[in-house]
Amino acid sequence: MSLDAFMHILGWSAVINIAVLGLSTVALIFLNGPVASLQAKLFGLTPEQCRLEAYRYLATYKALFLVFNLVPYLALRLVISA
Predict the structure, then answer these.
(1) Of the candidates 48, 59, 50, the residue with the CA atom closest to the CA atom of residue 24
(2) DSSP readout, 38-79?
(3) Largest interatomic CA distance in the chain
(4) Name one Pfam family in it (predicted).
């Protein structure tokens, strides 16, 4: 696989990950109460614990996206354009 093809794969993967992160964030903002109460009943947690876990999920997802997708894509863009 060439570097150009790998860069395109990382680019489209970044677009998909940004969409998933954005939708998750919007869902967390607007559906926080109903989802937290449902998950609290399902998993035996308090709604506050569910909210904290949701924010932890978003923070972890964002960190992994940056480290494994966006940074390699930007590095390849720099290498290929140089």
Answers:
(1) 59
(2) HHHHHHT--HHHHHHHHHHHHHHHHHHHIIIIIHHHHHHHHH
(3) 55
(4) DUF6868
